[in-house]
Specification:
By secondary structure, the chain is mainly alpha-helical. It folds into two domains: 59 residues, no CATH class; 31 residues. It is built from three helices and no strands.
Length: 92
């Protein structure tokens, strides 16, 4: 496989090879792809969990009539998310 990468990424590859973290370009590419695969899998699992939580949570349908209501809806969602995140960070 042949891939063209940016100068910035090439410099990163050279730096990783020079500091001995990886012995070859192939080793670095394999590690990067495995990391990407693991992150993608974790993301997909989290999305699945969130969908399951939403499906399991009874609620009312939200009807949005205009852009102002849409903005208000997302502002509320973001505020509740920030509160939840703050509680999570506070308990760890």
């Amino acid at each position: 496989m042949v891939a063209t990468i940016s100068t910035e990424l090439e410099e990163f590859v050279q730096s990783e090879l020079a500091n001995g973290r990886f012995a070859t370009r192939e080793e670095l590419i394999i590690a990067a792809l495995m990391h990407f695969r693991d992150r993608k899998t974790a993301w997909e699992q989290r999305v699945g969990q969130l969908i399951a939580e939403c499906d399991a949570t009874p609620g009312e349908d939200t009807v949005i009539h205009n852009e102002e209501e849409l903005d208000a809806f997302f502002d509320d969602v973001m505020a509740r998310g920030r509160e939840r995140l703050a509680k999570t960070r506070g308990s760890s």
